[in-house]
């Protein structure tokens, strides 16, 4: 409507301007007066447009708890007029200055966007306000205490109480502390769902105005998923942490048996002090190496499954699918264990037992008046051991850095795949070789098999070596070519069917 009025004024101004060039002096003065009047009216209209453009919608908030107050503060800072609806409007001492407080019914009359900041147990006052909520946008921000607490989501239950209102679920993933402290930025996301697209758009506009990034999650059926999201406790980390904890316990028990109990039983030596540094420094590298190999093992298994099936259009087993989804978390836990291994290794020279052993060895040599000859093989072995460890750890850290969202979003898919896949296998190869050089030829010497049990590092090499051998098979040119064809959509059964039809035609 406003655009049409401005267009009419523009057309009228053009006509009057044409008259100025065709009329006498008296008529020209009248025309100029008319033109001036039109310009003034045009300016007034444009000023009205500017005022309306900067005017924010009034927001009504039902509920004066922590979240309601924090949301009100944030909206006021963004320029929105805020009206609170409370059971006791007189008790408004804690509410932000600049906001108005009315009863529920009076507050609903002031705005078409209403935020319901109360828990589901207190929805009993809502049905009485059904007529006032007719056609309004009602935003449910509530969460439950636990998942599956009710048969339906809070938002769906609310839509049953007030069927004439346009219920939208949103803002339930944003904390009151984040709203009040101002620790929000454009990367902070808020999920929104609802059955009315126009209502969702209004709520998303409000989210943008306070510095949030809204994401449309579809209809109100998605409300249950949105309400369960804040109740989740590291869902993708459970399996990696469980595997890491299980491996840690197993290796700890195993190392205690062969490194502490065996010397005590066979030689009556108390070396229990190894429980603090030595045994953990055996556990961390082995668990880290196994976890790193478990990052790449599901991809290898998936490749062999695709080769066997001859197609990529069949789902993997659920266990493999879940395993592949948590590979990032497995890698980060593996990196944490590698960091611990590095830290524990750095303090080895400062340990009393190590310094005592070195000093005792030097004293024994001085008493015998002998010197230990330099072993070039041992020198190569030790230097190679440290070099492989440092290179492997450096690439380990690089893998961890590129897994960060801020870094992974800054590179394209080919670059990300090169680092995580190609350099990832190089990291696994370096770390596996590092562990193998540490063991050297111990697996051939019977003295290292205590009670017939191999050293812990031997168990830690089984899965990494298996992954590397399987990957070596997959990079054979003929196998790699077939796998690439399958992943680009080729199907062996389809080709066999086509050749079969051709042979029938012939």
TrEMBL record:
Cofactors (names): FAD; heme b
Reactions accelerated catalytically: 2 Fe(2+) + NADP(+) + H(+) = 2 Fe(3+) + NADPH; 2 Cu(+) + NADP(+) + H(+) = 2 Cu(2+) + NADPH
Pfam family, one: F420_oxidored
Domain Pyrroline-5-carboxylate reductase catalytic N-terminal: 58-144
GO biological process, one term: copper ion import
SUPFAM superfamilies registered for this protein in UniProt: NAD(P)-binding Rossmann-fold domains
Molecular function GO labels: cupric reductase (NADH) activity; ferric-chelate reductase (NADPH) activity; metal ion binding
Subcellular compartments: Endosome membrane
Domain Ferric oxidoreductase: 287-431
Cross-referenced InterPro entries: Fe3_Rdtase_TM_dom, NAD(P)-bd_dom_sf, P5C_Rdtase_cat_N, STEAP_metalloreductase
GO CC annotation: endosome membrane; plasma membrane
Keywords: Copper, Endosome, FAD, Flavoprotein, Ion transport, Iron, Iron transport, Membrane, Metal-binding, Oxidoreductase, Transmembrane, Transmembrane helix, Transport
Membrane topology label: Multi-pass membrane protein
Similarity-based family: Belongs to the STEAP family.
Name of the protein: Metalloreductase STEAP4
